[in-house]
Specification:
Elements lengths: L29 H19 L4 E2 L2 E2 L1 E4 L4 E4 L2 E3 L5 H21 L2 H6 L1 H17 L2 H9 L4 H26 L5 H9 L5 H21 L1 H7 L2 H4 L10 E4 L1 H4 L23 H4 L20 H12 L7 E4 L13 H19 L3 E7 L6 E2 L5 E11 L5 E8 L4 E4 L3 E4 L4 E10 L7 E10 L5 E9 L6
Antiparallel strand pairs: 1-2, 3-4, 4-5, 6-7, 8-10, 9-10, 10-14, 11-13, 11-15, 12-14, 15-16
């Protein structure tokens, strides 16, 4: 169907210009050294954290079965996950904050998809050669040399994917249990299935989907432009300086009508998403800076000034402090909320529930009794002893033992019977329970109700 409305000028939304495989050229440079150093640090953190031990156990561990999150000496339960929500919200605002100033540097420098995609590309370049050699190899019919190279590449990709999956699963299964059982084939079918699932996901995402994940599946690539303004520093091509572009030799002098761009096309060859930055701002751009290093290397060869492609803004920022008010205020508030949560967090959680079977009962001595279910959650790694006492109700006493022993990370359930030998003037009276840590002296109070047979009020 031919229609003037389907022309390039009227086309608003389309898929990537590069529909086939992108043969990514390797590039060195200052920005790439920063990116690789940052990627190395982040990967080391991801791979090494599960192997850190603290007081004889794994320091960072998510126990799905027991619904616990272990962070060194801190153990979080579902009721403590407010801090996790605050942390995720804080991370989101930090991401928006950085994006407002430097565009999609998260995507280009720290996103796991980009890190693993470029890692897989590094393996491909080591096995198959340069991007041109890899492209030529793919165009050849199947032969022994091609079969060997492709097999080695995919085996290495599979090994990296398997290692990634095992490390990820070691956050949920203790390292001392996961690795021996997996490599001896003694792991459960559920564990094997999850490891295989994440292995396949990593292999497909980093080895095959690559830029398609960033362009068509990642929601951040769609809404990130809403955070840009005319002061955001983005990877941009200087049209005034670069045009008219034209090929030339290094020995040739630049003509008066020519710009600095020598049309070497290296900025396209090194781009992980296959775009031409010289065509202007595009949502596919992940601000990785590969084209910046490639262009600067070419400018050096021709003795031109660097910065034809660079991190630049449309306008120089004015009144710098005002730009920090929005997202900066939100991140500050979230930091304050996390600090308040940490200050108010307690290693014990107490809940007192009245016996719902009967409001009260009269014992053999004629005294009024109320029964309560006491739940004490010990979130620490030490055995705790608690003293239970009543307050606010005259002549109220606890029948039986008033001390409770709770093991580390355990939930203690105990029944408490409270009685009073004096008549009460009200059917319902408030009673306070004071729970005191015998070792540290820390105490907290809980309010409940005490019912009697007197209905005079």
């Amino acid at each position: 169907m031919n229609s003037p409305y389907l022309s390039k000028e009227n086309l608003i939304v389309k898929t990537s210009l590069y529909e086939g495989k992108i043969y990514l050229r390797e590039q060195q440079g200052k920005i790439q050294r920063i990116r690789r150093s940052l990627s190395t640090v982040l990967m080391a953190i991801f791979f090494l954290i599960p192997f850190i031990n603290y007081q004889g156990s794994q320091a960072v561990y998510i126990d799905v079965q027991q619904q616990q999150l272990q962070l060194f000496s801190l153990t979080l339960f579902p009721q403590d996950l407010l801090i996790v929500c605050l942390l995720f919200i804080f991370s989101a605002f930090i991401l928006f904050y950085v994006t407002k100033f430097y565009g999609r540097v998260w995507c280009g420098f720290t996103c796991p998809q980009t890190i693993w995609m470029l890692m897989f590309n590094w393996v491909e370049r080591r096995v198959e050669g340069s991007h041109n050699q890899s492209k030529a190899l793919d165009s050849q019919p199947l032969h022994f040399n091609k079969l060997v190279k492709k097999s080695v590449k995919h085996l290495l990709w599979g090994a990296i994917s398997l290692l990634t999956a095992l490390v990820f699963m070691s956050y949920f299964i203790p390292v001392v249990q996961l690795y021996p059982s997996f490599f001896t084939f003694e792991a459960s079918a559920l564990t094997m299935s999850w490891v295989l699932f994440f292995t396949v996901c990593t292999y497909i995402n980093a080895g095959w989907l690559k830029d398609k994940m960033c362009q068509h599946m990642c929601p951040y690539s769609r809404f990130q432009s809403a955070m840009f303004d005319q002061f955001t520093r983005l990877v941009s091509y200087d049209h005034r300086r670069g045009e008219n572009r034209g090929k030339r030799k290094r020995s040739q002098l630049k003509k008066a009508e020519q710009g600095d761009c020598v049309d070497c096309n290296l900025c396209v060859q090194v781009c992980p998403v296959g775009i031409d930055i010289r065509a202007g701002l595009q949502y596919e751009c992940i601000n990785c800076g590969l084209c910046v290093d490639a262009c600067n290397a070419t400018m050096d060869k021709f003795n031109y000034a660097q910065g034809l492609i660079d991190f630049t803004s449309e306008q120089p920022p004015k009144q710098h402090w005002k730009r920090h008010l929005g997202y900066g205020s939100c991140t500050g508030v979230l930091l304050l909320m996390m600090w308040l949560w940490l200050v108010s967090w307690q290693s014990v959680e107490v809940n007192i529930i009245r016996d719902r079977q009967a409001l009260y009962r009269v014992n053999q001595a004629g005294n009024i009794e109320n029964t309560y279910l006491l739940k004490i959650r010990n979130k620490s790694n030490q055995i705790k002893h608690y003293q239970i006492a009543t307050m606010g109700l005259a002549h109220a006493t606890i029948i039986g033992s008033s001390t409770v022993k709770v093991l580390p990370l355990e939930l203690s359930l105990s029944s408490i019977v409270v009685t009073t030998d004096e008549p009460l003037t009200q059917t319902r009276s408030d009673i306070r329970f004071r729970i005191t840590d015998i070792d540290s002296g820390d105490a907290l109070e809980k309010i409940s109700a005490f019912y009697s047979g007197n209905d005079g009020w």
